[in-house]
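---------- Forwarded message ----------

FYI, see the Sulfur carrier protein FdhD record below. Original note from H. follows.
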Amino acid sequence: MNGLWRSPQDPLRVARGTVTHWQEATMQEREDMLAVEEPFEVRVNGESLAVIMRTPGHDAELAAGFLFTEGVLHAPSAIAEIQAAVDADGLPQPNVVDVRLQPGITPARPGGERRFAVSSSCGLCGKNSIADLVQDVPPLASDRVRISTTVLYRLPDLLREQQAVFSHTGSLHAAGLFSLDGDPLLLREDVGRHNAVDKLIGYGLLHQQFPFERSILLVSGRTSFEILQKALKARIPCVAAISAPSSLAVELAQQANITLIGFLRGRSMNVYAHPERLLER
C-alpha cells in the first residue's frame, strides 16, 4: 500500500490508500479504506500509566473504562475530569489524556508499580487468575433477569446495522449494549474488542448510567477472559458473541453468574453458562 491519507468523511477512524489488487492473473491499483490504529497514552494526575493501541474516538470513555476495569479506580466518583494533556508550551498533545482524580483519591497499582502497554489484540494486563478476580469482584447475585431467545436472535443484525466504520473497512470489532427487550442502547467500534467494551463501560461511568445490571453485551468476535472480566465489573448479566468463547471465559462466566452465549448466528446459538436466564419465546 502507498499514498496513505485520512478520509475527509471520518478523519479520526478511517484512512484511505492505494492498494495493488490481484484477481487471478490480472493486476490493478485501486483505492481502499483502512481502520486507523494509533497509540493512546493515559495519564493519571499527570503521571503516565498506560499506552493503548486503539482506534481514535471516544477517548475519554476508553480512558475511564480502562482504568475502572483494570482496577486502577474503583468508583466513577473518583474522576474529577478528563482533559487533553498539554506540553511544556501549554499546547494540547494529540493522543494523550490526563485523568484528574478527586482530592484525596489515590489510584491503585495492580501488578506493582509498572506501567501498562496494551496492544489492540490483548486485554487485561496484570491479572491472569480467576481466583484473583472473583476475590476482588463478587459474582453477580442471583436475579430474576430473563431474556427471550427471540430477542437474542435479532441482536447480530442490529449490531451490524450500526457498525459505521466496519462497513467501510471490514476490520473493526464492535461491542453493543442492548436492553433486555433488545433495544440498542450504545455501540462502540475499535481495532481491539476489549477497547470497544471499555468505551461502553466508560460511557456509563461518565454519564451516570452505571452499572449495566439489566443489559445484554454483544461483541462481534470471540469472547475472551478479558471481556468477561469487564462484564463482571460492569455487572452485565448476559454476554453474547458471534464467535466462540475461550475455556477461561466459560469458567469465569460460570463462577461469576453471567449467562454466556457464543456462535449467535441466524436462529441458533450455544449457551455455555447459566442458561436458566433464557426464555423459549
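H. also flagged this: The helical segments are 59-69, 130-136, 149-161, 166-169, 193-206, 225-234, 247-256.
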